[in-house]
Design a protein that fits this description.
The chain has about 375 residues and is α+β, with helices and mostly antiparallel strands. The protein has helices spanning about 5-10, 20-35, 40-60, 60-70, 115-120, 145-150, 290-295, 355-370; strands at about 140-145, 155-165, 180, 190-195, 200-205, 210-215, 225-235, 245-250, 265-270, 280, 285-290, 300-305, 310-315, 325, 335, 335-340, 340-350.
């Protein structure tokens, strides 16, 4: 994402938004724009990517602090390289607060010159040299059952990932083909260009950061050096998870360039509704039906709990519809705290009576002085 993009604006929150406000805004927008909810809509996919990038920065306290530093220094004031004045390697245009400035010059301001790589895309240089960059972190969402989210457990997921081409080992060259120095980057693996008012180095598109090009491309990957595959993974869902909870799988994202490590896969959880339970904080709520006789005379009910067991709940005589009973310690456990199970009673009234039953009810009403 360009550094002049307003992450707060993308999520629709103020610059002083709390982490909870950012989380709520992200959940709402991610649900609306997720590609699975808008199949075939490329604009939705781009919008979801923007939302994910903004959330990745603003939800991380350290990266958000760095991003706010850049905003205070005017890096997001709309500075642009003027047409014809900002070629590769140039700084901001005339009139910009960063005119003639290079990001590396920001090193004396608390290391701000290194922030662009850690904020915009989360890439880092790897062991492969200047053109080596760590793979980006990517996000995906997975639906999980209510009870798994509440109690924790393992869930299998299938995610599309990029892996080194098995035919060429990631070089992009056909077997036996010769490699020569890339003419575009002269073997460095990177090129510099004006980007949002700054000179930014990115992997060379001609050699994909490798610094070498093949005389003959690999037939399997067409010279890209990587292939798209479905990978099946098992994720550990922590107890007390809720919709929007994110699990980071390190090294399971896109592969890096020039031998750098792969990025991370961020798995967002979407909790499926349960037919019996619903969650409010750490408490779980449920509704159980009783008949008129049980409500009037009292009874004992077996009520199912989250762990699949049953507890006996005493319903006193004269219980009214909508009355709630609390079963302590049978809610969701998280961070050494545990909620309760709230049971709401629903009184079922017969929709139709036989003549004999109607006569008996009228007799009861007359004896009790009830109008009908």
């Amino acid at each position: 994402m360009p550094p002049d993009k307003d992450f707060y604006g993308v999520l629709g929150v103020p610059a002083n938004a709390t982490p909870e406000q950012i989380k709520r805004a992200y959940r709402k927008l991610a649900k609306k724009w997720h590609p699975d909810a808008n199949p075939g809509d490329k604009s939705s996919a781009e919008r979801f990517k923007e939302i994910s990038e903004a959330h990745a920065v603003l939800s991380d306290p350290a990266r958000r602090k760095q991003y706010d530093q850049l905003r205070r220094y005017g890096a997001f004031d709309g500075a642009r390289t003027r047409p014809g004045a900002g070629g590769p390697g140039r700084g901001a245009g005339a009139g910009s607060p960063f005119e003639g400035f290079n990001p590396s010059d920001l090193g004396g301001l608390g290391g701000l010159g290194d922030l662009f790589s850690s904020i915009f895309g989360g890439r880092r240089r790897g062991p492969g040299g200047e053109g080596a960059e760590r793979g980006e972190s990517v996000e995906t969402m997975v639906s999980i059952p209510f009870r798994v989210a509440a109690l924790g457990g393992k869930v299998p997921i299938s995610v599309p990932v990029t892996e080194a081409c098995p035919s060429c080992g990631g070089s992009g060259a056909a077997p036996g083909s010769t490699l020569s120095t890339c003419a575009e980057c002269r073997g460095s693996g990177t090129i510099s260009f004006g980007y949002g008012g700054f000179a930014v180095k990115r992997p060379c598109p001609a050699c994909r950061g490798r610094g070498k090009v093949a005389a003959q491309r690999c037939g399997t990957c067409q010279g890209v050096g990587e292939v798209r595959v479905e990978r099946r993974l098992m994720i550990n869902v922590p107890p007390g998870s809720d919709t929007g909870t994110q699990i980071r799988l390190r090294g399971h994202g896109p592969r890096g360039t020039g031998g750098a490590p792969a990025g991370d896969l961020l798995v967002g959880l979407q909790v499926e509704p349960d037919r019996f339970f619903r969650r409010e904080g750490l408490d779980v709520h449920c509704t159980v039906p009783i008949n008129v006789a049980q409500a009037m005379l009292g009874t004992k009910l077996k009520v199912r709990t989250l762990d699949g067991k049953h507890v006996v709940l005493r319903i006193p005589a004269g219980t009214q519809a909508g009355r709630k009973f609390r079963i302590r310690g049978q809610g969701i456990e998280k961070n050494a705290a545990r909620g309760d199970q709230i049971v709401e009673v629903q009184v079922d009234v017969p929709a139709k009576l036989s003549p004999e039953q109607e006569a008996m009810i009228k007799s009861f009403a007359d004896a009790a002085g009830l109008k009908y």
